[in-house]
Amino acid sequence: MSTIEFNGVNFSYQVGTPFEVNALHDINVRISDRSYTAIVGHTGSGKSTLIQLLDGLIRPTTGTIKVGNETISSTSSNSELGKIRSKIGFVFQFPENQLFEETVLKDISFGPQNFGKSEDEAIVLAKEAMQLVGLDDSLAQRSPFELSGGQMRRVAIAGVLAMKPEILILDEPTAGLDPRGQRETMQLFSQLHRKNNINVILVTHQMEDAAAFANQVLVMNDGNLVKAGSPNEIFSNPEGLIGNHLTIPKTTKVANELTKGGFRFDPYPLTLEELSRQVAKQLESGSN
Amino acid sequence: MNNIISVQNAIFSYPGNDIHVLNDISFDVSQGEWVAIIGHNGSGKSTLAKAIDGLLSLDSGQVVVDGLELNENTVWDVRSKIGFVFQNPDNQFVGATVADDVAFGLENRHVDHATMVAKVDEALKLVRMDKYADREPAGLSGGQKQRVALAGVIAMQPKIVILDEATSMLDPQGRQEVIELLHELKQRYKFTVLTITHDIDETALADRLFVIDDGSLISSGEPEKILSDSKMLLEKGLDLPLGEHIKHDLKELKIEVPEEYMNSSQVVNWLCQQLSSME
C-alpha cells in the first residue's frame, strides 16, 4: 500500500535565521494508492519543495507526511526517511546527466546493489527494468554515453525502476526530448501506471500532459495548494488557471472558441483527439 | 539577395564513427532572413549550427559567413559575426551579476569602460531586465535567464543570431517571452536568425523552414507549405502544428478538410462556418 497523506504540512527554508522563507503553507492532501497525480504550478510555486518532502530529502517544519504505514515529521530520523525513500523512485530533471557506468546493464543494476541486493539479483532486476522501458537486450553491454538522448533517458528511468518503487515521482520528465521521444516517454509512464500498478506523481509545465494522463491534478501557487480535482474540473475552468499563472491547454483554448461558434462539448475534451471526435460527430449529425 | 550564410556540400562525422551526421548538406540564407530548423533528436541540426559557428570542422564542404570562407584563419572573425544562445541557460553564465554577464563579451573585445556600461545598460533595457542588473543570475527564472543571454548577444551587435533549442527548457510563459522579444529585436537590428526548435508552432513565424533528417536537408520552403505536409512531419517523428493536428484528426474521422495550411484560428473559423451552414 502506498497511499500518501499530507497533514498540515508547512515548510520553511533556513528556519530561525533572518533569511527564513516560508515555501509551503498548510498543505493537506490525499493521494490514493495506484493513482496518477499531476502537480502543476509556475516556477517558484512550491511544487519542487512538495516532491522533495515526499521523497524524504527534506523534513517538514511542522505537520506530517504519511506514505503507507510510515510517517515523516520534523523529528524523523535519517533511517526513517530512508524507509520512505525505499518505496519511492525519483526521476529528476535531465536524469541522463547522472549516468556514469561503463555499460547500460551496470548503470541500471547500480541502484538495487546500493539498496543491498546481490550482483546477480541486481542484474535480474536490471534486465526486467530494461524490458519495462523498451530497451533492447542488445544494448545491455553498450556504453550509455553512445546512445541517443531519448535512449539515455530510458536507461536512467530503468535505473529507477530496477529498485521496484511503489511510487514514481517524475520532475519534468520530457524536457529536452523531441516530439516522438516526448510521446513515447509519456506512454511509457501511462503503461507503468496501468499495467504495473505504480503510483505516478508527475510535476510538469505541460498542461496538455496533465490533462491527458492524470486522474488527479494539484494546482500550486505561492506555496499554497490552491486546487485539487479531476483534470475535467481543473482544465474546464480557464479563469482559474490564468489566476494561478498557468497556461491554458491548447485543447481548452480551441474548445472555448468552438463553443462560441455554436459547438457543444460533453464531456469537456481534454485531448485534441477527443475534441476532434466530438466536432466530427456534430458536423455529421447536421448533414444527415 | 545577399547571402549571409552559404553552406555547400557539408559532410561531417564524429571521430571513430562512420555515420555522416551531416550528409552532403547545401543551402543559402539571405541577409535578414529568419530560418527555423526542425528534425528529431540526433538528426544533425545542432551539429549544423556548430559547423556554421566554427565549433567543429567539416570533413569536407564549405561554409561561407558574410563573405568569409570559414577556416582556421577566419574562425574568430566569423564567430564575431554570430551570437549563439544555447539550450541550458545555466551552462552559459560566467558573470557574478546579470550586468557582469552581459559585459563579458564586450570586455573580451576591449571595449572601453564608459561605452561598455552604456551598452550593457541599453541591452538590459531592451530585454526588460535592467531592474535585475545587480542580481545573481542563479536566482532568475528560466525565461529571465534566456533574456539575459539574449542581452549578452545583442550587446555584441552580431549580424547573425543562432538559437539552439533556446526555449526548450522554459515553461510556456518563458518561451513566449523569449520568442516575442526575439521578434522585436530582429525588427530593430535587422539581423539574420537561425532557430533550432522542437516547438512546431514556433516555426510558423519563420520566413523559411528546413527539415533535417539523418544528416540531410530533406525539405525546405515556406512554413505554410511544409507544415501542411502532415504525412511527412509524422513520418519524421515531428509534431503537427495545432491547426493541422485538428485537421489531420478530422480527416481520419472522414470529415473533408481544406488542403492548404491553416493556423488554429483559421481552423476554428472554418469549422464554425461549416456548422452554421448546416442549420
Describe the structure.
The complex is a heterodimer of chains A (288) and B (279). By secondary structure, chain A is of the alpha/beta class. Chain A has a single domain, classed as Rossmann fold (3-Layer(aba) Sandwich). Chain A is 40% helix and 21% strand. The radius of gyration of chain A is 21 Å and the shape is globular. Chain B has eleven helices and ten strands. Chain A: ATP-binding (A) component of a common energy-coupling factor (ECF) ABC-transporter complex. Chain A: It is an enzyme of class 7 (translocase).
Beta percentage of chain B is: 15-25%
CATH class of chain A: Alpha Beta
CATH topology of chain A: Rossmann fold
Beta strands of chain B, count: 10
Gap from first CA to last CA of chain A: 52 Å
Proportion of strand residues of chain A: 15-25%
Largest sheet of chain A: 6 strands, mixed
Overall outline of chain B: globular
Which short descriptors sum up this protein?
heterodimer; A: 288 residues; alpha/beta; Rossmann fold; six-stranded mixed beta sheet; four-stranded antiparallel beta sheet; 10 strands; 40% helix; 21% strand; B: 279 residues; 11 helices; globular
How is this structure best summarized?
Chain A: This is Energy-coupling factor transporter ATP-binding protein EcfA2. Chain A is α/β, with parallel strands linked by helices and 288 residues long. Chain A is 40% helix and 21% strand.
Give the topology, please.
The complex is a heterodimer of chains A (288) and B (279).
Chain A: E1 4-13, E2 21-31, E3 36-40, H1 47-54, E4 62-67, E5 70-72, H2 78-85, E6 88-91, H3 104-114, H4 119-132, H5 149-161, E7 167-171, H6 179-195, E8 199-203, H7 207-213, E9 216-221, E10 224-229, H8 231-235, H9 238-243, H10 250-260, H11 272-287
Parallel strand pairs in A: 3-8, 3-9, 6-7, 7-8
Antiparallel strand pairs in A: 1-2, 1-4, 4-5, 9-10
Helix pairs in contact in A: 3-4, 3-5, 4-5
Chain B: E1 3-12, E2 22-30, E3 34-38, H1 45-52, E4 60-65, E5 68-69, H2 75-80, E6 82-85, H3 98-108, H4 113-126, H5 142-155, E7 160-164, H6 172-189, E8 192-196, H7 200-203, E9 208-213, E10 216-221, H8 223-227, H9 230-235, H10 242-252, H11 264-278
Helix pairs in contact in B: 3-4, 3-5, 4-5, 5-6, 10-11
Function (chain A): ATP-binding (A) component of a common energy-coupling factor (ECF) ABC-transporter complex.
Family (chain A): Belongs to the ABC transporter superfamily. Energy-coupling factor EcfA family.
Keywords (chain A): ATP-binding, Cell membrane, Membrane, Nucleotide-binding, Translocase, Transport
